[in-house]
Amino acid sequence: MNYATLDDFLRDLPALAREHRQELEGRAALILLQTNQGRSVLVRLRDGEVTFPTSCGEEPECTIIAGEEDLMGIIAGKLNPAMALMFGKVKIKGNPKPLLELISLIK
C-alpha cells in the first residue's frame, strides 16, 4: 500500500491489524515511534488489535527513531529497513521483533 503521510498509515493501521487478526492473535507489543521532527506515537498491538494509547505507564518494547520521510520510505517498500539501519537513517532501541510484526501487516 502507498501512504502519503505517516498519519495516513497510522489511520489505516487498526484496519490492517483486523484483516490479519488471526495471524496476530496472542501477540502483544508496545512500540514507540519517534520522528526526528519531534513527534512521538505509541502503538499497542494486542491480540490482533492496534490502538494508540496517549500514555500507559509502561516502557515500550521497541522504540523506532527516524525521520518521517524515511519511515514512509520503509512503509512504501522504497527503503530497505536493513539498509536504513546500517546507514543510520533509522535507529531501533529494544527488541525489534514487534516492529517486524507490524511491518508484516503492510506486505
Major sheet summary line = 5 strands, mixed
Percent helix: 25-40%
CATH class: Alpha Beta
State Rg: 13 Å
- The count of β-strands is 5
How would you sum up this structure in a few lines?
With 107 residues, the protein is an alpha+beta fold.
Describe the structure.
By secondary structure, the chain is α+β, with helices and mostly antiparallel strands. The protein has one domain (6-104): SCP2 sterol-binding domain (Nonspecific Lipid-transfer Protein, Chain A, 2-Layer Sandwich). The chain has helices spanning 6-19, 21-24, 68-75, 81-86, 97-104; strands at residues 28-35, 40-46, 49-51, 62-66, 90-94. It has a five-stranded mixed β-sheet. The longest helix is centred in the N-terminal third of the chain and has 14 residues, at 6-19. It is globular. The mean pLDDT is 88.
Question: What is the topological layout?
Answer:
Layout (H helix, E strand, L loop, with lengths): L5 H14 L1 H4 L3 E8 L4 E7 L2 E3 L10 E5 L1 H8 L5 H6 L3 E5 L2 H8 L3
Main attributes of the structure:
Nonspecific Lipid-transfer Protein, Chain A; 37% helix; globular; 107 residues
